[in-house]
Write a structure and sequence with these properties.
By secondary structure, this protein is α/β, with parallel strands linked by helices. 32% of the residues lie in helices and 29% in strands. It binds adenosine-5'-triphosphate and magnesium ion (MG). This is Macrolide ABC transporter ATP-binding protein.
Length: 226
Protein backbone atom coordinates (compact mmCIF):
# COMPACT_ATOMS: atom_id res chain seq x y z
CA UNK A 1 0.00 0.00 0.00
CA UNK A 2 1.20 3.50 -0.81
CA UNK A 3 1.99 5.39 2.40
CA UNK A 4 0.49 8.85 2.81
CA UNK A 5 2.41 12.07 2.25
CA UNK A 6 3.98 13.63 5.30
CA UNK A 7 6.16 16.37 3.80
CA UNK A 8 5.26 18.15 0.57
CA UNK A 9 7.41 21.04 -0.58
CA UNK A 10 6.30 22.82 -3.76
CA UNK A 11 8.67 25.23 -5.51
CA UNK A 12 10.31 26.44 -2.30
CA UNK A 13 12.73 29.38 -2.50
CA UNK A 14 14.74 30.84 0.36
CA UNK A 15 16.62 34.10 0.03
CA UNK A 16 18.77 35.44 2.88
CA UNK A 17 19.47 39.18 2.99
CA UNK A 18 22.68 40.28 4.70
CA UNK A 19 23.13 44.02 4.35
CA UNK A 20 23.00 44.75 0.61
CA UNK A 21 23.68 41.19 -0.37
CA UNK A 22 20.94 38.70 -1.21
CA UNK A 23 21.83 35.03 -1.21
CA UNK A 24 19.50 32.42 -2.65
CA UNK A 25 20.01 29.38 -0.41
CA UNK A 26 17.17 27.29 -1.91
CA UNK A 27 16.13 27.38 -5.55
CA UNK A 28 12.71 26.10 -6.53
CA UNK A 29 12.81 22.96 -4.41
CA UNK A 30 10.00 20.45 -4.75
CA UNK A 31 10.15 17.36 -2.58
CA UNK A 32 7.80 14.74 -1.19
CA UNK A 33 8.47 12.46 1.77
CA UNK A 34 5.98 9.72 2.70
CA UNK A 35 5.18 8.46 6.18
CA UNK A 36 7.69 5.88 7.35
CA UNK A 37 10.48 6.85 4.92
CA UNK A 38 14.14 7.05 6.01
CA UNK A 39 15.75 9.75 3.86
CA UNK A 40 19.30 11.10 3.86
CA UNK A 41 20.19 14.53 2.49
CA UNK A 42 23.79 14.93 1.40
CA UNK A 43 25.71 17.75 -0.28
CA UNK A 44 28.67 20.10 0.10
CA UNK A 45 28.94 22.69 2.85
CA UNK A 46 26.74 25.68 2.00
CA UNK A 47 24.54 23.74 -0.42
CA UNK A 48 21.40 24.54 1.60
CA UNK A 49 20.85 21.34 3.63
CA UNK A 50 20.25 23.00 7.03
CA UNK A 51 18.15 25.73 5.41
CA UNK A 52 15.94 23.03 3.91
CA UNK A 53 15.78 21.13 7.21
CA UNK A 54 14.82 24.28 9.14
CA UNK A 55 11.93 24.86 6.75
CA UNK A 56 10.78 21.22 6.99
CA UNK A 57 10.99 21.54 10.81
CA UNK A 58 8.93 24.77 10.82
CA UNK A 59 11.85 26.63 12.39
CA UNK A 60 12.06 29.01 9.42
CA UNK A 61 9.78 30.28 6.66
CA UNK A 62 10.46 29.97 2.94
CA UNK A 63 10.63 33.21 0.93
CA UNK A 64 8.18 31.70 -1.55
CA UNK A 65 6.58 28.37 -2.33
CA UNK A 66 4.21 26.10 -0.46
CA UNK A 67 4.96 23.71 2.40
CA UNK A 68 2.40 21.19 3.59
CA UNK A 69 3.16 19.07 6.65
CA UNK A 70 0.79 16.15 7.18
CA UNK A 71 -1.68 17.72 4.74
CA UNK A 72 -1.67 21.11 6.47
CA UNK A 73 -0.46 24.23 4.65
CA UNK A 74 1.98 25.89 7.03
CA UNK A 75 2.40 29.28 5.35
CA UNK A 76 -0.24 31.21 7.30
CA UNK A 77 0.21 29.65 10.73
CA UNK A 78 1.14 31.84 13.69
CA UNK A 79 4.28 31.26 15.74
CA UNK A 80 2.48 29.68 18.73
CA UNK A 81 0.65 27.23 16.43
CA UNK A 82 3.94 26.38 14.72
CA UNK A 83 5.54 25.78 18.13
CA UNK A 84 2.71 23.42 19.09
CA UNK A 85 3.01 21.46 15.85
CA UNK A 86 6.79 21.22 16.29
CA UNK A 87 6.44 19.99 19.86
CA UNK A 88 3.84 17.36 18.97
CA UNK A 89 4.95 16.08 15.58
CA UNK A 90 8.70 16.65 15.22
CA UNK A 91 11.75 15.44 17.11
CA UNK A 92 14.98 17.36 16.43
CA UNK A 93 18.53 16.02 16.69
CA UNK A 94 21.47 18.37 16.06
CA UNK A 95 25.20 17.87 15.51
CA UNK A 96 26.03 19.70 18.76
CA UNK A 97 23.51 17.77 20.95
CA UNK A 98 22.06 21.02 22.43
CA UNK A 99 21.60 19.61 25.95
CA UNK A 100 21.22 21.82 29.02
CA UNK A 101 24.59 21.56 30.84
CA UNK A 102 23.61 21.69 34.52
CA UNK A 103 20.70 19.32 34.11
CA UNK A 104 20.56 15.52 34.42
CA UNK A 105 19.96 13.26 31.43
CA UNK A 106 16.48 12.50 32.74
CA UNK A 107 15.53 16.18 33.15
CA UNK A 108 16.95 17.03 29.72
CA UNK A 109 14.80 14.33 28.14
CA UNK A 110 11.70 15.44 30.08
CA UNK A 111 11.80 19.05 28.79
CA UNK A 112 9.43 18.56 25.79
CA UNK A 113 6.90 16.98 28.17
CA UNK A 114 6.51 20.15 30.23
CA UNK A 115 4.17 21.50 27.53
CA UNK A 116 2.19 18.25 27.42
CA UNK A 117 0.58 18.89 30.80
CA UNK A 118 1.89 15.75 32.55
CA UNK A 119 2.67 15.49 36.25
CA UNK A 120 6.33 15.42 37.30
CA UNK A 121 6.21 11.69 38.10
CA UNK A 122 4.63 10.91 34.70
CA UNK A 123 7.32 13.03 33.01
CA UNK A 124 10.06 11.18 34.87
CA UNK A 125 8.55 7.77 33.94
CA UNK A 126 8.38 8.72 30.26
CA UNK A 127 11.91 10.20 30.28
CA UNK A 128 13.24 7.03 31.90
CA UNK A 129 11.55 4.85 29.28
CA UNK A 130 12.99 6.99 26.47
CA UNK A 131 16.50 6.70 27.95
CA UNK A 132 16.07 2.93 28.27
CA UNK A 133 15.21 2.80 24.55
CA UNK A 134 18.59 4.32 23.70
CA UNK A 135 20.45 2.07 26.17
CA UNK A 136 21.14 4.70 28.84
CA UNK A 137 19.18 3.39 31.80
CA UNK A 138 22.40 3.48 33.86
CA UNK A 139 22.97 7.21 33.19
CA UNK A 140 19.68 8.78 34.28
CA UNK A 141 21.25 11.13 36.83
CA UNK A 142 24.39 12.00 34.83
CA UNK A 143 25.02 15.53 33.62
CA UNK A 144 26.06 16.05 29.96
CA UNK A 145 29.73 16.70 30.92
CA UNK A 146 29.83 13.27 32.59
CA UNK A 147 28.84 11.56 29.33
CA UNK A 148 30.74 10.69 26.15
CA UNK A 149 29.75 12.39 22.87
CA UNK A 150 27.86 9.30 21.72
CA UNK A 151 26.02 9.07 25.03
CA UNK A 152 25.13 12.79 24.88
CA UNK A 153 23.72 12.30 21.39
CA UNK A 154 21.68 9.34 22.65
CA UNK A 155 20.23 11.60 25.39
CA UNK A 156 19.36 14.11 22.64
CA UNK A 157 17.66 11.32 20.66
CA UNK A 158 15.70 10.23 23.74
CA UNK A 159 14.59 13.85 24.13
CA UNK A 160 13.57 13.97 20.46
CA UNK A 161 11.50 10.80 20.88
CA UNK A 162 9.93 11.32 24.29
CA UNK A 163 6.79 12.98 22.88
CA UNK A 164 6.41 10.13 20.40
CA UNK A 165 6.65 12.37 17.30
CA UNK A 166 6.01 10.87 13.86
CA UNK A 167 9.00 12.57 12.28
CA UNK A 168 12.63 12.85 13.30
CA UNK A 169 14.78 15.56 11.74
CA UNK A 170 18.50 15.10 12.29
CA UNK A 171 21.10 17.65 11.12
CA UNK A 172 24.47 15.85 11.02
CA UNK A 173 23.66 13.67 14.05
CA UNK A 174 27.01 11.86 13.77
CA UNK A 175 29.08 14.92 12.79
CA UNK A 176 30.80 15.19 16.19
CA UNK A 177 31.13 11.45 16.82
CA UNK A 178 33.74 8.77 16.16
CA UNK A 179 32.86 5.93 13.78
CA UNK A 180 31.77 3.51 16.52
CA UNK A 181 29.45 6.00 18.28
CA UNK A 182 28.14 7.05 14.86
CA UNK A 183 27.21 3.45 14.04
CA UNK A 184 25.39 3.12 17.37
CA UNK A 185 23.31 6.20 16.52
CA UNK A 186 22.52 4.69 13.10
CA UNK A 187 21.41 1.43 14.72
CA UNK A 188 18.99 3.42 16.90
CA UNK A 189 17.66 5.29 13.84
CA UNK A 190 17.21 2.01 11.95
CA UNK A 191 15.26 0.57 14.87
CA UNK A 192 12.94 3.58 14.92
CA UNK A 193 12.56 3.40 11.16
CA UNK A 194 11.41 -0.22 11.55
CA UNK A 195 8.86 0.98 14.12
CA UNK A 196 7.36 3.21 11.41
CA UNK A 197 8.95 6.58 12.24
CA UNK A 198 9.79 8.97 9.42
CA UNK A 199 13.43 10.04 9.51
CA UNK A 200 15.06 12.83 7.52
CA UNK A 201 18.79 13.04 8.19
CA UNK A 202 21.47 15.38 6.89
CA UNK A 203 24.98 13.98 6.64
CA UNK A 204 28.33 14.62 4.98
CA UNK A 205 29.32 10.98 5.11
CA UNK A 206 28.41 8.41 2.46
CA UNK A 207 28.82 5.63 5.07
CA UNK A 208 26.11 7.24 7.19
CA UNK A 209 23.85 8.05 4.22
CA UNK A 210 23.78 4.40 3.18
CA UNK A 211 21.71 3.54 6.26
CA UNK A 212 18.84 5.53 4.70
CA UNK A 213 16.50 4.02 2.13
CA UNK A 214 16.59 7.11 -0.14
CA UNK A 215 19.39 9.62 -0.67
CA UNK A 216 18.73 13.18 -1.82
CA UNK A 217 21.69 15.17 -3.13
CA UNK A 218 21.82 18.95 -2.81
CA UNK A 219 24.03 21.27 -4.81
CA UNK A 220 23.89 25.08 -4.84
CA UNK A 221 20.41 25.18 -3.31
CA UNK A 222 18.93 22.61 -5.66
CA UNK A 223 18.07 18.94 -5.43
CA UNK A 224 19.88 16.64 -7.80
CA UNK A 225 18.40 13.34 -8.75
CA UNK A 226 20.96 11.08 -10.34
N1 LIG B 1 20.86 33.11 8.61
C1 LIG B 1 21.54 33.25 7.46
N2 LIG B 1 21.77 34.46 6.91
C2 LIG B 1 22.42 34.61 5.75
N3 LIG B 1 22.90 33.59 5.01
C3 LIG B 1 22.70 32.34 5.49
C4 LIG B 1 22.02 32.10 6.74
N4 LIG B 1 21.99 30.76 6.97
C5 LIG B 1 22.61 30.19 5.91
N5 LIG B 1 23.05 31.12 5.03
C6 LIG B 1 23.73 30.88 3.75
O1 LIG B 1 22.89 30.01 2.98
C7 LIG B 1 23.66 29.01 2.31
C8 LIG B 1 23.18 27.62 2.73
O2 LIG B 1 23.49 27.43 4.11
P1 LIG B 1 23.14 26.09 4.89
O3 LIG B 1 23.42 26.33 6.32
O4 LIG B 1 21.75 25.68 4.53
O5 LIG B 1 24.18 25.06 4.26
P2 LIG B 1 24.51 23.54 4.63
O6 LIG B 1 24.33 22.74 3.38
O7 LIG B 1 23.72 23.14 5.81
O8 LIG B 1 26.06 23.59 4.98
P3 LIG B 1 26.93 22.78 6.08
O9 LIG B 1 27.15 21.42 5.50
O10 LIG B 1 28.19 23.56 6.18
O11 LIG B 1 26.14 22.75 7.36
C9 LIG B 1 25.12 29.28 2.66
O12 LIG B 1 25.70 30.01 1.61
C10 LIG B 1 25.03 30.12 3.93
O13 LIG B 1 26.11 30.99 4.04
MG1 LIG C 1 24.23 22.62 7.79
Amino acid sequence: MKQSLLVKLSRINKIYHTGEIALQALKDISLEVRKGEFVAIIGASGSGKSTLMNIIGLLDHPTSGKYELDGQDSSHLKEDTLAQIRNKKIGFVFQSFNLLPRTTAMDNVAIPLIYAGLSRSERMDRAKQALEQVGLDDKLASHPNQLSGGQQQRVAIARALVNNPGIILADEPTGNLDTKSGSEIMRIFERFHKLGKTIIMITHEDDIAKHAKRVIRMKDGQIWTS
